[in-house]
Amino acid sequence: MFVFYYAGHGYIHPGNKEFYLVSADVEDGNESLLKNGVAAKELQSFAVDIAAQKQVFILDACQSAGAFEQMLKHDGEQQKALAVVSRSTGTHWMAASGSTETAKEFGELGHGAFTYTLLQALKGQAAANKMITVNGLKNFLQVQVPELIKKYGGGAQYPASYGFGNDFPVELFK
Fold first, then answer.
1. Domain of 40: which CATH number?
2. 171 CB-contact burial (10 Å; exposed 0-12 / middle 13-18 / buried 19+)
């Protein structure tokens, strides 16, 4: 199993409408982002090239659903390649926020709301039948993050997810 987890800044470039992971050397949302940021298409290409049969990409960043929304709308070849990879296994994407939303942080939690909820899920709150599956994790996040945001008084934040292939366990409990 391959798990990619990113917690940091994310931004959709206004020109090409592509989502980018914003690295420390990005100075602005224009040329520097295009040169130094990590484009969603690069992540998707990595997924095709990774030998692991079970893949989970977790993005805790503002506008992070943009990492897969554009792919679903426009890039049929990339979508076909990911589908072939996941046919007998699974490739799943989880995003902290919609493509127009910010990912909220609250000092009391010690993490962003999405990561805090993810950690609670992995500690067993998302377990069913002594396991946590990818789809169980997605469902837990989609229900619990908005409730946590409401509790702490933040604006709207709704996690998004997308998956190709089968559900699979990410954690087993004895």
1. 3.40.50.1460
2. middle
Q: Which two tokens stand for residue 87?
A: 């046919």
Residue 34's Cβ-side half-sphere holds a number of Cα atoms within 13 Å equal to 7
CB 125 within 8 A of CB 51: no
pLDDT value of residue 47 = 82
Q: Which domain holds residue 71?
A: 2-172
* Position 162, amino acid: Y
How many other C-beta atoms are found inside a 10 Å radius of the C-beta of residue 73? 10
| Interval 116-170: pLDDT, tens | 999 999 999 999 999 999 999 999 999 999 999 999 988 899 999 988 888 999 9
Token pair of 156 as six digits: 């709207």
Number of structural domains in the chain? 1
In which residue are the tokens 């993810």 written? 118
Averaged pLDDT of the chain? 89
